[in-house]
Amino acid sequence: MKISLVGLSGCGKTSIYSTTLGGMAPMEVKDLGPTVMYEVKSHNYLGLQISLWDFGGQEKYRQSYLETPKLLANTTILIFVLDLHHPEDYKKANNYFSEVFSAIKEGGGEPQTIIFYHKYDAEDYPEEKLEENLAKGKELPFIQEINPSSYITSIFRQEELSEIFREILISDFEKLKESVENAQNHLMKLNSKIIVSDVNGNVITHSIKGFSTGIQLREDLRDYILSCNVLRENFLTAESASFSALSEKKKLQLHIFSYVLSVLIMVDEGVAADPPDAIEALLNEMKIFAELIVEASEEE
Ligand SMILES: Nc1nc2c(ncn2[C@@H]2O[C@H](COP(=O)(O)OP(=O)(O)O)[C@@H](O)[C@H]2O)c(=O)[nH]1
Ligand SMILES: [Mg+2]
Predict the structure, then answer these.
(1) What single-letter DSSP state applies at residue 216?
(2) Which of 38, 19, 35 is nearest to 27 (CA)?
(3) Which of 152, 169, 186 represents a domain boundary (last residue)?
(4) Is the Cβ atom of 121 under 6 angstroms away from ligand 1?
(5) In terms of domains, do 28 and 149 share one?
(6) Which of 30, 192, 244, 263 lies 20 to 30 angstroms, CA to CA, from 97?
(7) Ligand 1 atom 23: the closest Cα is on which residue?
(8) Ligand 2: distance of its center to the CA of 38 in Å?
(9) Which parts of the chain register pLDDT below 70?
(10) pLDDT at position 300, please?
(11) Which of 181, 172, 159 minimizes the C-alpha distance to 45?
C-alpha cells in the first residue's frame, strides 16, 4: 500500500508522518529540516506493508515529480496537505495539487484522494483567522472540482491525528473497522488499562488517559511485547500465547493472537479487577480480529 503525502514546502508533511507512524511527540518535530526531494518510509501496520512517500514540496523539486511519473505511480492513497496558516499560498497549493492529481490520472492511477486541512491550531498563529482560512480553503477550485474526503488536522492533536491515520489505513477493510469499534466498546466498560496493538508496536486502540505517542507504542512496552513475541515464536512455537507478570504495584497480562495482534492488560494496585467474563469477551473479540487481519494481509 503506497501513501503519498503531497503539499507545498513547510505545510507539515514530515511532521504528520513523524507524529503518527514515526512515534514522535509534537514538540520534537519543531526543528525538522526540510525534506530534500522525497523520502520513503516503510512501515508494517497490522501485517500490511505500507510505504509512505513524503514529497518534499520545495519549488525546485516539484517540477521533477511531475516529469518523473514513476515516482507518483501506484499511489493507493493520495493525501494533499493544505497549510491553514498560510492562506497567501493557497493558489500555489491549488495548482500544485491539481498538477499532481492530473499526472497520476494520466498514468492510469485511481488513488483514494484525501485532503488534510492542516495546522488547525493556534500554535504561533492567531486563532480568530483559522475558521476564515478553513472556509477559504474549502472553496479552492481543485477541491471543489474533485470533492475529496477531508480531515481537519493538527500535530498538536496527536491522538486524533493518529486515529485519522488508523481510519485511513484500514479503510479498505470494512470488517477490520468493525472489530476496532467492537474493541473500543469493550474497553469503555472495563477498569483495567488496556492497549491493543500489533506485535510491531502499532497501537490500534487503548483505554489509558493521557497516553499519547501517535501510533507507535512507548518504547519500553514495545520491547516487552517484542520479547514475548520472540518467546512465542522460538520456544512455544505457537501462533498464539499468553504471558503474565506480577509486581507489587501492577498485574500485567499480555495476549498474543495469530502472530499479529497483542492485547496488554494492566491492573494497578488498589483498582478493582474486571470480571473475568468481561475480559474473556474482549479477548474472544480480539482473537477474531487477529484472524481477520491475517485474512486481509493475504488478500493484499
Ligand atoms: N502549528 C502547527 N505547526 C505545524 C504543524 N505541523 C507541522 N508544523 C510545523 O511546520 C513546520 C514545517 O513542517 P514540516 O513537517 O517540515 O513540513 P514539510 O516541508 O511539509 O515536510 C515545522 O516547523 C513544524 O513544526 C501543525 O499541525 N501545527
Ligand atoms: Mg518535509
Answers:
(1) B
(2) 19
(3) 169
(4) yes
(5) yes
(6) 30
(7) 30
(8) 8
(9) 210-213, 300
(10) 62
(11) 172
The three cell numbers locating residue 171? 479503510
For atom 6 of ligand 1, which residue has the closest CA? 12
Q: Is the CB of 22 under 6 A from ligand 1?
A: no
Which of 4, 11, 15, 27 to mutate to test ligand 1, by most ligand atoms within 8 A of the CB atom?
A: 15
Which residues are 245's β-sheet partners? Answer: 252
**How many angstroms separate the alpha carbon of residue 183 from the centre of ligand 1?**
33
Instruction: Please tell me the distance between residue 236's alpha carbon and the centre of ligand 1 in angstroms.
Output: 45
For residue 243, give every residue at least 6 positions away whose Cβ sits within 8 Å of its Cβ, in sequence order, or none: 228, 231, 253, 254, 255, 256
Q: Please check whether residues 249 and 294 belong to one and the same domain.
A: yes
Same structural domain for residues 151 and 186? no
In this structure, the answer to whether residues 29 and 114 fall within a common structural domain is yes
pLDDT tens by residue, 28-41: 888 777 777 788 98
Domain of residue 32 covers 2-169
Residue 61: what residue type? Y
164 and 179 both lie in a single domain: no
Does 24 share its domain with 104?
yes
Q: 276-299 and 174-189 helices cross at what angle (nearest 10)?
A: 160
Q: Do 9 and 149 reside in the same domain of the chain?
A: yes
